[in-house]
């Protein structure tokens, strides 16, 4: 029943799909994982990378194969076959991309939800009184701490205010009234950043956290995350903000709880409250 | 109502313009002259924009900011973006090929509004010159081609204002062109020619022109408000005066996302013309191609906020724009499958035109895949404003549109000049361009994923090697222009004659002499109802015979 061409194309498709999935799972193009957000992101990346590899190799393979197989032989002056269309084929390649796109869309919705993107903003933010009620808070991403890190399920997030200016990030810890150029955070503790710019638009980006949020003048934005790996990671400004944009960097220092407490005690203004 | 155009007896156009090459410097009303004016002017700006890209790539060979002054670097990247978009790709894929081809395709003797057409072209050189000279007057704009406030309000005003004026002029030119194309396609069709018999490029230009006319005025209005903020210290987008910076981004991207389709839809149309000729097969799936163009037009208007996923948009908005954006992949995918089906079973001449078209398909598929990924909010939150986006964007506009422009030049050069280009040099040009382009932009995906933001003059030293690789690719791209220019010059001076129809093509522009006479046909325009009727011997013979009879009769 089946012609050899059908069997060959079936086998090629199977190899392509297996190859694509292998590439998606085994080729790592991403930096270190350092927040609860990052492994979820990497899961999405693997799926997209696998689908992308299959489609790209498949399409380019078809084009190159056609160029070789159907190239004009010398001396041949005939036309090709007069095929103007094929309804069932056209329906097929409308349906397949539609299904793939729908799957990717639903899957990334699920990923976004697990990252906390659908939570109401600032729900874990216990210092909302800092923000004038009439100003709108614009979302980065909600907190995913309650599900992802059972260790601290009940703990309230550490709140930090970020103000960005040409060309620096300044962190202010309301509790302890610390002002710092480095963001010190304890590992596995949810952090709620409230960010606002003093001049132009900047962006707060930590590649190892897979998170980015613009820091906007006139509108506070919120970003919640939970770091999971001890270390120093770059904070990068990702929005063109002037001549020194490329140099606008800071560091997030993720420390063990006791190291963080030590840093906090050294820098907190009202040490007497501790007693 | 369809107007018919009898051959004019007085030949008014010939009297109005100088002869020879001086035509190209004149206020000519001939759509073919205007088309080539767009093409040549655009190519000059391409070389300038390319030189600026070269400066960027030289700066990025080392992790320190050591080649250009920091503010000059920002001016260079702003000029590079603005020139390449507004002075090269948009004018060439729309203005150049649109003006040259659309009147032939609808069987008209010229565009609907020839004077408006000439005005639209002549707005471009002064606007471009103004933009470039602003560098010498107190510095050009340095807030990127997006000109986001408050940065664009706080950087030196002179350059930013000149940038706004020049983009307004170019936008005006684009709107004039769009109106002209819509009128020509809908109203100047030869009697007897139905819409669904038009070559695909007409549909692409109809869709594109609808986008131009709907969205460009929004950009114009936005930039006028921005100029008020700069000059008159109003507070539309200035947060210090109660303005809202996000509103600017919405208004800007309401134009500038459709602008991507204004750059690629005509390219889709051109590829649809080139492939059938050199594969000797009909265009596969004409009707689905038409519907997918219109689908892209409609969806293209409702996806702009995917440029703003990290700007502070509410979750519902993020989701809506994710889904709308991802669904553009469906009509776009149909077009790509149809092109591959056009190749399949054809008798393909492996010439420069087909190689550049197939290079386009491969590059654009990759750009489209990264595009669908970028449409996903959680994915975008990491790579937004990084080199990943730079790579994606260049795969769309260079790997896509510019490859198609080169393919089109190889395909229509005999039509423009009556001379043939050297195919071996053309294939060599393709090879270097393809390798250089991929070497330049493929590694940038990795850079973006690993932490290199866009628009920076300095970066983390761990990215040095990959940036140098990318710069070598850019060098190859720059060098690839040389065989092309040499080829064109050689052919113009002493190229072999092509004859009227070297490709034995069936679309109407080839059914007249090459180069065509003023007013396109000596006799009546031929009625081409099957522009892709390859493989149907009898009709080809008939069409060419009637053309010969026309000539003999006159």
Measured between the Cα atoms of the first and last residue of chain A, the distance is 86 Å
Structural category of chain A is alpha/beta
Low-confidence stretches of chain A: 122-137, 143-154
Q: Give the largest interface.
A: A-B, 83 and 96 residues
Q: Could you estimate the helical fraction of the residues of chain A in percent? A: 25-40%
Overall strand count of chain B: 0
How many domains of chain B? The number is 1
Spatial extent as radius of gyration of chain A:
26 Å
Short description:
Chain A has 275 residues and is α/β, with parallel strands linked by helices.
Description:
The complex is a heterodimer of chains A (275) and B (554). Chain A is an alpha/beta fold. Chain A has 2 domains: 4-69 and 90-114; 128-274, Immunoglobulin-like (Sandwich). Chain A has helices spanning 4-26, 37-69, 87-114, 145-148, 257-267; strands at 138-141, 158-165, 168-173, 178-180, 183-186, 191-197, 202-206, 211-215, 221-225, 231-237, 249-255. In chain A, strand 3 and strand 4 (178-180) form a beta hairpin. In chain A, helix 1 (4-26) runs antiparallel to helix 2 (37-69). The longest helix of chain A has 33 residues, at 37-69. Chain A is elongated, with a radius of gyration of 26 Å. Mean pLDDT of chain A is 84; it is low at 122-137 and 143-154. Chain B has helices at residues 12-16, 31-59, 70-106, 114-122, 124-133, 151-154, 157-187, 200-231, 245-279, 286-300, 315-327, 329-343, 352-375, 377-383, 387-417, 423-450, 464-494, 537-553. Chain B has one domain (36-553): Up-down Bundle (Cytochrome C Oxidase, Chain A). With 554 residues, chain B is an all-alpha fold. In chain B, 67% of the residues lie in helices and 0% in strands. The chains are: A alpha/beta (275), B mainly alpha (554). At the A-B interface, helix 2, helix 3, strand 1, strand 8 and strand 10 of A face helix 3, helix 9, helix 10, helix 11 and helix 12 of B.
């Amino acid at each position: 029943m089946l012609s050899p061409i059908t069997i060959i194309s079936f086998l090629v498709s199977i190899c392509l799909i297996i190859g694509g999935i292998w590439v998606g799972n085994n080729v790592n193009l991403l930096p270190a994982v350092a927040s609860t957000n990052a492994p979820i992101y990497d899961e999405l990346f693997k799926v997209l990378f696998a689908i992308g590899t299959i489609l790209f190799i498949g399409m380019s393979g078809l084009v190159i194969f056609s160029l070789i197989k159907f190239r004009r032989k010398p001396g041949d002056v005939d036309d090709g076959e007069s095929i103007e269309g094929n309804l069932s084929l056209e329906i097929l390649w409308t349906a397949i991309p539609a299904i793939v796109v729908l799957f990717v869309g639903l899957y990334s919705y699920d990923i976004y939800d697990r990252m906390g993107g659908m939570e109401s903003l600032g729900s874990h933010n216990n210092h909302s009184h800092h923000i004038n009620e009439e100003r709108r808070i614009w979302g980065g991403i909600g907190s995913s701490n309650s599900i992802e890190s059972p260790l601290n399920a009940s703990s309230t997030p550490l709140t930090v205010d970020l103000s960005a200016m040409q060309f620096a990030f300044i962190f202010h810890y309301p509790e302890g009234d610390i002002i710092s150029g480095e963001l010190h955070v304890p590992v596995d503790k949810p952090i709620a950043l409230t960010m606002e710019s003093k001049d132009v638009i900047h962006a707060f980006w930590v590649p190892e956290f897979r998170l980015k949020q613009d820091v906007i003048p006139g509108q506070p934005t919120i970003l919640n995350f939970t770091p999971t790996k001890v270390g120093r990671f770059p904070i990068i400004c990702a929005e063109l903000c002037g001549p020194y944009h490329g140099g606008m960097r800071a560091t997030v220092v993720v420390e063990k709880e006791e190291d963080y407490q030590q840093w906090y005690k050294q820098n907190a203004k009202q040490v007497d409250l501790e007693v | 109502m369809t107007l018919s155009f009898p051959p004019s007896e007085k030949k008014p156009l010939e009297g109005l313009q100088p002869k020879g090459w001086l035509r190209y410097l004149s206020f000519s009303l001939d759509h073919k002259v205007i088309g080539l004016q767009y093409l040549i002017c655009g190519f000059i700006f391409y070389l300038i924009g390319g030189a600026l890209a070269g400066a960027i790539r030289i700066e990025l060979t080392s992790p320190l900011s050591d080649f250009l002054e920091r503010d000059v670097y920002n001016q260079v990247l702003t000029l590079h973006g603005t020139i390449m978009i507004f002075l090269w790709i948009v004018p060439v894929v729309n203005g150049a090929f649109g003006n040259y081809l659309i009147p032939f395709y609808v069987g008209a003797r010229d565009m609907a509004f020839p004077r408006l057409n000439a005005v639209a072209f002549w707005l471009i050189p002064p606007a471009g010159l103004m933009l470039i000279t602003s560098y010498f007057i107190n510095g050009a704009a340095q807030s990127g081609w997006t000109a986001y406030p408050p940065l664009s309000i706080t950087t030196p005003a002179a350059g930013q204002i000149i940038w706004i004026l020049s983009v307004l002029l170019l936008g005006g030119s684009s709107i004039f062109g769009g109106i002209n194309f819509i009128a020509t396609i809908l109203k100047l069709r030869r009697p007897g020619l139905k819409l669904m018999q038009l070559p695909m490029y007409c549909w692409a230009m109809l869709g594109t022109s609808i986008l131009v006319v709907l969205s460009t005025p929004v950009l114009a209005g936005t930039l006028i408000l921005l100029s008020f903020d700069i000059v008159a210290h109003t507070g539309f987008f200035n947060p210090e005066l109660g303005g809202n910076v996000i509103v600017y981004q919405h208004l800007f991207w309401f134009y500038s996302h459709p602008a991507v389709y204004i750059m690629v839809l005509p390219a889709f149309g051109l590829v649809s013309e080139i492939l059938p000729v050199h594969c000797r097969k009909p265009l596969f799936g004409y009707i689905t191609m038409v519907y997918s163009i219109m689908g892209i037009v409609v969806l293209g208007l409702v996806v702009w906020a995917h440029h703003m996923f990290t700007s502070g948009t509410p979750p519902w908005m993020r989701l809506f724009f994710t889904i709308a954006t991802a669904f553009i992949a469906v009509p776009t995918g149909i077009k790509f499958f149809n092109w591959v089906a056009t190749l399949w079973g054809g008798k393909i001449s492996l010439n420069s035109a087909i190689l550049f078209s197939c290079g386009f398909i491969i590059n654009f598929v990759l750009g489209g895949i990264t595009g669908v990924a970028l449409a996903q909010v959680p994915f975008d939150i990491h790579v937004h404003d990084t080199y990943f986006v730079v790579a994606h964007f260049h795969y769309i506009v260079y790997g896509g549109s510019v490859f198609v422009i080169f393919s089109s030049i190889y395909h229509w050069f005999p039509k423009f000049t009556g001379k043939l280009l050297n195919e071996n040099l053309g294939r060599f040009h393709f090879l270097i361009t393809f390798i250089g382009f991929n070497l330049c932009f493929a590694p940038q995906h990795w850079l973006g994923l690993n932490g290199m933001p866009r628009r920076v003059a300095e970066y983390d030293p761990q990215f040095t090697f990959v940036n140098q690789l990318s710069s070598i690719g850019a060098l190859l791209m720059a060098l690839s222009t040389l065989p092309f220019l040499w080829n064109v010059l050689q052919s113009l001076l002493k190229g072999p004659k092509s004859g009227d129809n070297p490709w034995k093509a069936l679309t109407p522009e080839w059914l007249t002499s090459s180069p065509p006479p003023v007013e396109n046909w000596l006799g009546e325009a031929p009625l081409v109802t099957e522009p892709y009727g390859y493989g149907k011997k009898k009709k080809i013979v008939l069409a060419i015979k009637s053309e010969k009879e026309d000539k003999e009769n006159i």
